[in-house]
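Researcher: Good morning. I'm working through a list of sequences from a screen, and I'd like to move beyond sequence-only analysis. For each chain I'm collecting a predicted structure so we can compare shapes side by side. This is the next one on the list. No need for commentary yet; just the structure.
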Amino acid sequence: MLDGFGFGGSRRHALEKRPVLLIFSDPGCTQCAELMPQVAEWQDRHRQALVITVISRGDPSAKQAQAADFGVHSVLLQKDSEIADKFAIAGTPSAVLVGADCAYTRAAARRQPDRPLDRFGSLQEVREAAEREYILKKLEETNGNVTRTAELLGLERSNLYRKMKTLGIGPKE
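Model: Good morning. Structure tokens for this chain:
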């Protein structure tokens, strides 16, 4: 459960029924710095549906200035890597999508020959890939029981069926 990881505000976000996307960044990570303007855009564009927070480390005043330069408005600083460790984050940039039920799915920016990160052109594509993986995981946990999966996800069964169709997930995939 996310509350156990010391992420302030998690109860409020869970009550709002919005998923939280935690983006892990590191001060020395070039890819992370290149990603920040896009993160700021995502935060603005998807604020009604998704809470996007950058988790980094370093000097608070320097991070505040850097966030302001990029237009990023939600940054959480860890002292070292205590939050990243709780989510088993091995490198940056990485992300964790936390559902309203506080269950989560990790994604790392590792380039794989058969699934390059560059294939994602927008946050919508990244979100759909994460949602697909998360729904498949929950379906597996419930042995393909769509009704039980919908309950776990906090969705109406008909909405889950629609989402599955949109994401190309067939029953018992």
